[in-house]
């Protein structure tokens, strides 16, 4: 039941987790800003947060597509469908047309640079202009009506059932829920731009603190919290798709072998290898990160068919089938989880088929992480069986898997909540403490000159 929503946290292209975070951050920062600096500061926070996110999640992609459309017409090419990325195990860039490669690289850099310039330098100017216009209208309205301007909070209380009529708030309402990941691709440029465009030294200090301290909670805090909680509970951080493949394989093997003993389960699932074979692999990889299939066959005999199958977990490199060290070790092991057919199924699910496509990049680090998570889950099953002193069968494996999913979902939810709290409430609270310390006032520092 929770596998599908949990899977979003393992998908780098999923937007819902970042929608949740950005919604909380936007709401929290707008609330804190309104509470301390009033409706003007709240408006700036909403526009800044929402617009920045929209530019990264949609704007950059639109710029890239526009650039590719221009490239297709000018260069008369239609071969830009490839990933720019490579390592010692995969290189989708080899044998590509150099013109197409250079154009796509320049297009990506230019699209990102334009978005960075807009967020860091253009958006602050727009925000400042909007603020001046709003303040000017407010002053004119006060002169005309001689009525005291009510606060943003009072306005909300008096007009709960009335939709925003101001174009500014309509704009902010549309932009509330957006991805934060693309927003942070070029933090240095954005932070630098906002710092440069701040209206006075107090606003510069606040921008610098807020934007730099936010980076950790946007990019790293959730993963660190999940990792810590998994370690404390002896749980496995495993992609639900990979977990499903692993559970089905273990159930099938257990039913065929009738193995229930804990020690036999571990030996059969993970497998063992001859010490001589492992030493030979160490020699092969002494000064290399990757070897060819032919090199493996010449050094170690008896595994040709399995070696060839595992070497096809990635496209050819330099026209030859290659192997990483962990893959070579899997070849000489007899365990269920090192079965080549199973490894292909796992990689297919985890990468949506990208693992075997020549124009797609799946890093060696990710491949090893996927493989390690499978072994970690097997060890988790073994630990649970030992602790509960019970045999390992299909139902027990399913029980451990369901418990794993529930825990990981809870851990990611906790990590997300911590990010929202830190970004939306804790950082603004410290920011306003800094303001109070520097200016002895809660007034929005960005409009001090305007008030003068």
Proportion of helical residues:
55-70%
Parts with pLDDT < 50 across at least 5 consecutive residues: 147-182
Strand content: under 5%
Structurally, the number of domains stands at: 2
Structural class: mainly alpha
What would your notes on this structure say?
With 452 residues, this protein is mostly helical. The chain has 2 domains: 15-226 and 412-451, no CATH class; 235-401, no CATH class. It has helices spanning 3-7, 16-37, 39-74, 98-145, 152-158, 167-174, 187-197, 201-219, 221-232, 240-257, 262-270, 275-284, 293-299, 304-311, 325-332, 340-351, 364-388, 394-439, 448-451, and strands spanning 290-292, 322-324. Strands 1-2 form a two-stranded antiparallel ribbon. The radius of gyration is 28 Å and the shape is globular. The termini are far apart. The relative contact order is 0.14. Residues 147-182 have low confidence and may be disordered.
Question: Which key features would you list for this structure?
Answer:
single chain; 2 strands; 1% strand; 452 residues; mainly alpha
Would you summarize the structure shown here?
With about 450 residues, the protein is mainly α. The chain has helices at about 5, 15-35, 40-75, 100-145, 150-160, 165-175, 185-195, 200-220, 220-230, 240-255, 260-270, 275-285, 295-300, 305-310, 325-330, 340-350, 365-390, 395-440, 450, and strands at about 290, 320-325.
SSE layout and pairing:
Blueprint: H1 3-7, H2 16-37, H3 39-74, H4 98-145, H5 152-158, H6 167-174, H7 187-197, H8 201-219, H9 221-232, H10 240-257, H11 262-270, H12 275-284, E1 290-292, H13 293-299, H14 304-311, E2 322-324, H15 325-332, H16 340-351, H17 364-388, H18 394-439, H19 448-451
Antiparallel strand pairs: 1-2
Helix pairs in contact: 2-3, 2-18, 3-4, 3-6, 4-7, 7-8, 8-18, 9-18, 10-16, 10-18, 11-17, 12-15, 14-16, 17-18
């Amino acid at each position: 039941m929770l596998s599908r929503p949990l899977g979003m946290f393992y998908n780098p292209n999923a937007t819902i987790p970042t929608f949740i975070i950005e919604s909380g951050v936007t709401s929290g920062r707008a609330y804190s800003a309104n509470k301390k600096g009033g409706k003007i500061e709240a408006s700036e926070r909403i526009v800044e947060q929402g617009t920045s996110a929209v530019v990264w999640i949609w704007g950059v992609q639109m710029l890239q597509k526009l650039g590719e459309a221009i490239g297709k017409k000018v260069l008369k090419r239609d071969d830009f469908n490839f990933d720019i990325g490579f390592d010692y195990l995969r290189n989708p860039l080899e044998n590509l047309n150099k013109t197409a490669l250079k154009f796509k690289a320049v297009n990506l850099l230019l699209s990102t640079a334009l978005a960075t310039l807009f967020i860091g330098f253009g958006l602050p100017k727009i925000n400042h202009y909007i603020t001046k216009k709003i303040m000017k209208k407010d002053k004119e309205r006060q002169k005309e009506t001689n009525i005291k301007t009510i606060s943003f909070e009072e306005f909300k209380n008096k007009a709960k059932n009335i939709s925003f009529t101001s174009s500014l708030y309509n704009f902010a309402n549309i932009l509330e829920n957006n991805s934060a990941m693309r927003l942070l691709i070029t933090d240095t440029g954005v932070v630098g731009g906002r710092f440069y465009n701040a209206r006075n030294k107090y606003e510069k200090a606040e921008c610098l603190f807020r934007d730099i301290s936010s980076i950790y909670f946007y990019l790293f805090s959730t993963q660190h919290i999940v990792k810590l909680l998994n370690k404390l509970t002896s749980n496995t951080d495993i992609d639900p798709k990979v977990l499903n493949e692993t559970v089905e394989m273990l159930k099938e093997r257990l039913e065929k072998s009738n193995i229930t003993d804990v020690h036999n389960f571990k030996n059969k699932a993970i497998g063992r290898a001859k010490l001589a074979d492992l030493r030979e692999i160490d020699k092969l990889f002494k000064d290399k990160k990757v070897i060819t299939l032919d090199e493996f066959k010449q050094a170690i005999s008896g595994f040709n068919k399995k070696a060839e199958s595992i070497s096809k977990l990635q496209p050819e490199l330099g026209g030859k089938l290659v192997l990483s060290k962990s893959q070579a070790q899997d070849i000489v092991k007899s365990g269920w989880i090192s079965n080549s057919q199973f490894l292909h199924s796992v990689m297919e699910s985890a990468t949506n088929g990208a693992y075997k496509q020549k124009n797609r990049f799946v890093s060696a680090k990710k491949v090893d992480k996927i493989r390690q998570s499978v072994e970690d889950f097997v060890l988790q099953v073994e630990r649970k069986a030992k602790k509960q002193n019970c045999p390992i069968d299909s139902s027990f494996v399913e029980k451990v898997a369901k418990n794993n999913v529930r825990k990981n979902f809870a851990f990611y939810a906790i990590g997300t909540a911590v990010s929202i709290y830190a970004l939306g409430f804790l950082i603004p609270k410290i920011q306003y403490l800094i303001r109070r310390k520097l200016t002895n006032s809660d007034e929005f520092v960005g409009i001090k000159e305007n008030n003068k």
